[in-house]
Amino acid sequence: MNRPKEAFENGDALFHENTKLKQAVAIQHELQKEYEKQNLELQQLVSQYQIGLRNLQILDLNFESHSQAPLSQLNAELFFSL
Q: Across the 82 residues of the chain, what is the mean pLDDT of every consecutive 10-residue run?
């Protein structure tokens, strides 16, 4: 005649297990949100660095083309570009 007591204990154990699983899912959800936030920030940084790199490459190409020009022409271009 211990069946009702066993059923109650089993139900109580299931309730506690369910509570722990819900807590684990909530923690995992928060970790996933944080990961996605950091991933977005990283993607934005990579994009900014790529833009900066392209700008430096353009400046380098401009410098190379000007460094091959006569010095008087380079001085004139720098003076008038200011």
A: 68 92 98 98 96 91 72 58 56
Domain that holds residue 62: 3-81
Q: Around 59, how many Cα atoms within 13 Å sit in the side-chain half-sphere?
A: 6
Exposure string over 59-77, b if 16+ CB within 10 A, otherwise e: eeeeeeeeeeeeeeeeeee
- E strand segments, 8-72: none
Number of independent structural domains in the chain: 1
**CA dihedral angle for residue 70, residue 73, residue 74, residue 79, rounded to 10 degrees:** 160
pTM value > 0.70: no
